[in-house]
Specification:
With about 425 residues, this protein is α/β, with parallel strands linked by helices. It folds into two domains: about 200 residues, D-Maltodextrin-Binding Protein, domain 2 (3-Layer(aba) Sandwich); about 200 residues, Periplasmic binding protein-like II (D-Maltodextrin-Binding Protein, domain 2, 3-Layer(aba) Sandwich). Strands 1, 2, 3, 6, 11, 12 and 13 form a seven-stranded mixed beta sheet that branches. A hairpin with a 2-residue loop joins strand 4 and strand 5. The chain binds beta-D-glucopyranose. The site of beta-D-glucopyranose has 10 residues, from strand 11. Keywords: Signal, Transport. Belongs to the bacterial solute-binding protein 1 family.
Length: about 425
């Protein structure tokens, strides 16, 4: 009797607290670019979680892989005085927004983040020593996704070098399969090019794309990179121009496409289509990149609301939830990524994610854990944009590799 009275009392307290938070909580307006099947499923976990905590979720999803359109929409919202409660932003743009004086400090929600995150990632979530961004997960970029039935059909194995890659691509072509499923959008062109740069070794990548060292950018090795990219292009199908990334992934899911170079959000699409790794598809490090890991980390930043400099209770709850172990796990299971938090168990994840975690830890030690230029983890928008223009122009013209290299080196000087 006594116990049941206590539980009634507890239930009533919870009810009152719950009612209070539903009535009192502010709506959360959230801008992001997660609109594909796998992406939507992943962000819905957060929406449902915030709804349960009593917050209304106002969704501003801006379609467009890699977020260029979303970043334009965000600028418009902030300039017109309608800054969202939270927005998906990453890399140096986090500090850019902070330096505009429009973000709030979320230190209160981040008390255990440092202890459980890779230092290289944790540091980028701060401005002037304070947390202003909450990270979702680690995506690996240097993956090659291969349709397993196609691979078996042509009697191939996952390629570990470029000669092996081109030999497999020839087999796919001979079997009437589009060897490389690609979407001709600047950021997807950059994904391939950056991965080929990485295949020259982590040191080459660092000197070329992190340090923007002119000698490396104009080296014979860089000419080779452009030659390889030019050859990869000959394996695209006719309809590649402007294709969205998830439609290219759908080609590999159905088997009309043999392979795709793409970050592991592609795995979110495979999972969403009930496809299993090693059964329906293979994930392999792109040729020549098994000792390296190019990464991008999605994060939310939080904007001042109603002219107040402090974070609102809803923003603090949102930041806390994003980095909570349960959310970190479920989000990455749907998204194809791995949790930021190193204390989240990996037993529910597939082999690709487990490999990603092992390689993450190994490359953090070896120096092969590198920020992706293609995904906004390096340099100002002006510099990254100029390099993207040079690469995408090369991929969509008959420019020779030496000319491509010259334009790249000039682009790297844009400030
Ligand atoms: C983001 C991913 C997203 C991908 C495609 C990348 O910039 O980091 O989360 O799935 O773009 O939209």
């Amino acid at each position: 009797m006594k116990r049941s009275l206590t539980s009634v009392a507890t239930a009533m307290t919870l009810l009152v607290a719950g009612t209070h938070s539903v009535l009192g909580a502010e709506p959360l307006s959230v801008l992001h670019w997660w609109t594909s099947g796998g992406e939507s499923k992943a962000i819905r976990v957060l929406k449902d979680d915030m709804n349960k905590q009593g917050y209304q979720w106002k969704d501003f999803a801006v379609a467009g892989g890699a977020g260029a359109a979303a970043m334009t929409a965000l600028k418009t919202q902030v300039i017109s005085g309608n800054a969202p409660s939270a927005a998906q932003v990453k890399g140096p743009l986090i500090q850019d927004w902070a330096s505009q004086g429009v973000l709030v400090n979320i230190d209160q929600s981040a008390t255990d983040w440092k202890a459980h995150s890779p230092a290289q990632i944790d540091n980028t979530m701060k401005a002037n020593g304070h947390y202003v961004a909450a990270p979702f997960s680690v995506h690996r970029i240097n993956w090659l996704w291969i349709n397993k039935a196609d691979l078996d059909k042509v009697g191939g194995t996952p390629p570990t070098t470029w000669p092996e890659f081109f030999a497999l691509a020839d087999k796919f072509r001979a079997a009437g399969i589009t060897a490389v499923a690609h979407g001709g959008q600047p950021w997807q062109d950059m994904t391939i090019w950056e991965t080929v740069v990485l295949s020259q070794g982590p040191d080459f990548y660092r000197k070329a794309l992190v340090d923007l060292d002119q000698k490396t950018l104009t080296s014979p090795q860089m000419v080779q990179v452009f030659e390889t990219v030019q050859k990869i292009r000959t394996y695209f199908d006719k309809g590649y121009h402007g294709r969205d990334w998830n439609l290219a992934t759908a080609m590999v899911i159905s088997g009309s496409g043999g392979m795709q170079f793409m970050g592991d959000w592609a795995k979110g699409e495979f999972a969403n289509a009930n496809r299993k790794s090693d059964v329906d598809y293979v994930c392999a490090a792109a040729p020549g990149t098994s000792n390296a890991f190019t990464y991008t980390v999605d994060a939310f930043v939080f904007f001042q609301q109603n002219g107040k400099k402090e974070a609102t209770p809803g923003q603090l709850a949102l930041a806390r939830t994003i980095m909570s172990p349960d959310f970190q796990q479920q989000f990455s299971l749907y998204k194809g990524s791995i949790p930021i938090r190193l204390d989240v168990p990996m037993d529910k994840f597939d082999d690709c994610a487990k490999k990603s975690r092992t390689d993450e830890l190994a490359t953090i030690k070896s120096g092969g854990f590198l920020p992706s230029l293609a995904f906004g983890e390096l340099h100002s928008s002006a510099t990254a944009g100029a390099i993207t223009d040079a690469v995408t122009n090369f991929m969509n013209s008959n420019e020779d590799p030496e000319e491509g290299v010259r334009k790249l080196a000039a682009a790297a000087k844009v400030k």
